């Protein structure tokens, strides 16, 4: 293949991918309930009964018949613009399919004429797919302009279906032709692109994981937007580029080393020339073009991952920087051998022609093959043995630290340090870069293993044992065999779980301490905060602050908070602020309500805790802590048993996330200086859960909702105890502190509601006393049971509303729901909502039958929420005692589900209680309800 042909293919590929990404971004607003796949839903509508509601949901009108400007157009015009932009995309992808087919045919013609004929047909089919796409676009334009009649959706869908089939067939045949192993004259194989990529599968596989993590999740867009170059995100931006470049360099380095070791050639131009003997029938075992370009392809792939992630985020500076260092790095690597000879006066930095390092006599027999593999890669490392040993040494040290810290010291200092200095995805990228070397050694060792024999007269042979699959299975299965994720306990408790007061005593003390009016009805406010990572934490803190100030104006206060998952972060910040206030700053009693004099610093703290990075430490804890812990967990378990040590608690990615909460909150408190907190410095999140005011009636009661992983009920972290099992206020629930027989840190209480796989593991609730419980309760994210926290709030409200809950005084609980689902056009159930019609169908897109069980199980969670909301409306709306505040998204603010938020999104969330009329109406209704005599 000539250089001009290769450049043509590269340009067609860039044009196709670029236009595809632009179409996806431009058509994102076309995703509606009627069109869940956007414009594709209309392409495959088949019938006017389906197409008409789709077009109606876009509100296409006559003013869209002309081509309009692409930027900032409304949905009614965006659909037509999408179709017109599709025209250059058709030209690009059809040309690319034609190029792929023709070049594949040229490649395989000498050895497989039949495949070459199929490849040439595939090239023509690619052009035919483009022609069908043009027909489809004409049909779409006619439908969008209310022309063509009822037959048009069917004709358009036929063209679209045929187009997709031809594209897939053309791609399959062409890519197979490019990947197929060619044959030598003597019948042996020539290692092709596919074969060499398989040899470098450690780097290839990790790059695929990196691409999935950075290019697919919607959270990436806002996360990279936070990494700004002119503000506090500067260091995050720098570390992102440095670690991504390190991944690219390691992918190139180790793939070049393993391919050179496989070919047995040095890293100089003379060796390459000897390998690159032209002619398919010449006796050469490796495709010289693939041998030279696979490492460069992997380097370019990392840059492409960064470009795609930046495009999705509209982070144009990030995109430009990634493009610059990718191009510059690729050019340096392309001319590396020439520069090496010119400036280093060395044609070859490897030791490929030198003697092999002898295998140490003390090394076990099973590891001697691994030593030889390691030595082969070191000797063929393109930048010299010293650099290769340095990379492997750093990876080994990080791995050993992870084993020692998490299994012996039960600490996360190294992971925390890395998570702090490498925020966001940088810690994970650093771990991936380090892992490429050791995994390349292991994979190449597996390639050199040849197992075989005869079983019952049948010959068998195993090549390339599935080493990576075995490692993944060990990491997955070890925590099911031995305890590795015990819930962390607090170091110095302020009280033991059995010393907690009964709920009725806590309520009576709260009323005496927090209500200035000792006569008349008592209106305790219960706020339920939903899950949703950082956005729920910030939204929950904003709702709590708004409700707190309204309640203070009407002689009452927040009595209880029922939180789930990320909402617990906002609840904890609010409660820690109250607990740190002095008596004079928050009359009538300590910790009852937010001090008005400190409003500015309170709001700053609540916004910052919602947007500070907790993702980097969690990823660092997973890769540098949990993976080594799982690989060595079983032998470590028996060693600990022999030494009579307690079960492992903390030291995992759950503790890493908890420590990130603590560190972020401490930094936020310290930023204003000693004199900034006019009402007293908030409590740190490393303090005991029972140090919060709810345990003594000096502030709101916090009920943190987790889920029992085995039985599906609630696992509640609560500051009060139960007299007897018959007095338990929450049916089917479990008392977490009682199960542990110990207190936990505030940060641990947060995480015990937000243990959502795979970010945080399930927490094992083995009691502190070392009880011989074989299978302790496992706590996971509270959203599995019910994501609003409303069911627990309603249970508490029912208990408060029972006769004589507070002596002779009438108790009228008020329930406020803070939902952080962040949908654009949600159906929010409020007191003024129309009644639910049981005869109305709520069917959506027909699901894939194989996925129906999983979809159904997930949908049940939303069903539980709807039942709780209907219960709240029917029970408390007649009393004017239920209010629902909702976090909305809009076209300009797509609020992500993540543990880090950009400044723009954080400001949008915080201001939403004051900007959305629906929420303002609910707050006004709350004021009216509290003003009643």
Gist of the model:
With 933 residues, the chain is an alpha/beta fold. The strands form 3 sheets. Strands 5, 6, 7, 8, 9, 10, 11, 12 and 13 form a 9-stranded mixed β-sheet that branches. It has a two-stranded antiparallel sheet with strand order 1-2. Helix 4 (75-108) runs antiparallel to helix 5 (113-144) and helix 10 (234-263) crosses helix 15.
Structure description:
The chain is of the alpha/beta class. The chain is 56% helix and 6% strand. The protein contains 32 helices and 13 strands. Strands 5, 6, 7, 8, 9, 10, 11, 12 and 13 form a nine-stranded mixed β-sheet that branches. Helix 21 links the parallel strand 5 (525-529) and strand 6 (558-564). The longest helix is centred in the first third of the chain and has 34 residues, at 75-108. It starts with a helix and ends with a helix. Residues 60-75 and 278-283 have low confidence and may be disordered.
